[in-house]
User: What shape does this take?
Amino acid sequence: MQVIRGADTKLERAERPIFTGEVNTHTYVDDKIGTHLRLTLVRFSPGARTTWHTHAFEQGLMITEGQGIVATEAEEFPVGPGDIIIIPAGEKHWHGGSETTAMAHISITTPGETTVLEPVEQIRTRS
Assistant: This one.
């Protein structure tokens, strides 16, 4: 068993093609700790988000603070603390803060490929 202390969380700026705006992350569980489980805290500043992307695996998002948006091609869902989102493998989606509010979630995944599909400029935003 391994106990991971929340007090040891150290967010670092995420500079990856999947993110736009100021996004900070902390990986709790990676391949050094878990064989089949990945847990990452992702904190989006207002206006920050992911680009459109898909995963080769199901993704769970547990919203921990703030207000944000999780979107598919068909719909945008406002989300807040305590909300849990399950995204099926292969579903095109994006998630992040709103234009005026920050949002953080814990991403729950398994090992596998994430495919970035489009530049962020093409993301639909809520009015």
Q: What stands out?
A: Confidence is low (pLDDT under 50) at residues 120-127.
